[in-house]
Specification:
Shape: elongated
Strand content: 5-15%
Radius of gyration: 32 Å
Helix content: over 70%
Largest sheet: 2 strands, parallel
Length: 193
């Protein structure tokens, strides 16, 4: 009889504790599609455009050199038989060396642009993390998850998606920062006059 009483008490305690744990707190959660945020962020688009223009400008200089080298290669082919084998070997070696230098220059340019744009994008990501944190505190979220390339949410209802709201917020903030910078630059110009 004693064993049955102990078993009944243990069963009662476990039922009570299960009921208490099922009444846990509801959390306010949301998620941000970070890939979409970066695609629609004006600041991210400006950074991308800046480095695209810079790549085109630097690429144009290399293209001039590549065109010049192609012309010299054609000239080499025409002159190889006229000037003899010794000249052809020396000229061909020089052309190969210049072609290799051009390839190195192109690689260096790409690395430089990737490094510079990577730093700016990393800085932007850091800035947005602070925005997410401040936004979460302001709106009383318990959790804000991220989806996109580095997905931490495998499924969520669309109603929890706050991406559009944050895109709008960061774009408005970016525009107001740009206007402040313009006003500061205008003041400096006026002061110099």
């Amino acid at each position: 009889m004693n064993k049955n009483l102990i078993l009944l008490i243990a069963l009662s305690v476990s039922i009570i504790s299960c009921n208490q744990s099922s009444t846990s707190k509801e959390y306010k959660t949301a998620y941000i599609d970070t890939s979409k945020l970066m695609e629609e962020s004006t600041e991210a688009k400006d950074i991308e455009a800046k480095y695209k223009a810079k790549a085109e400008e630097m690429g144009a200089e290399l293209k001039v050199e590549a065109t010049k080298l192609e012309g010299e290669k054609k000239s080499f082919q025409a002159n190889a038989q006229k000037n003899g084998q010794v000249w052809a070997q020396q000229a061909y070696g020089e052309l190969q060396q210049r072609e290799q230098q051009l390839q190195y220059a192109q690689q260096a340019m790409l690395q430089q642009l990737q490094g510079e744009s990577g730093k700016e994008m990393d800085s932007l990501v850091t800035k947005y993390k602070k925005v997410f944190k401040d936004f979460g505190k302001e709106k009383s979220y318990d959790y804000i998850y991220g989806t996109g390339e580095a997905a931490t949410v495998l499924y969520a209802k669309d109603s929890y998606d706050i991406t559009k709201e944050l895109v709008k917020m960061v774009n408005v903030k970016y525009k107001s920062e740009a206007k402040k910078e313009e006003k500061t630059a205008d003041k400096k110009v006026e002061e110099k006059k």
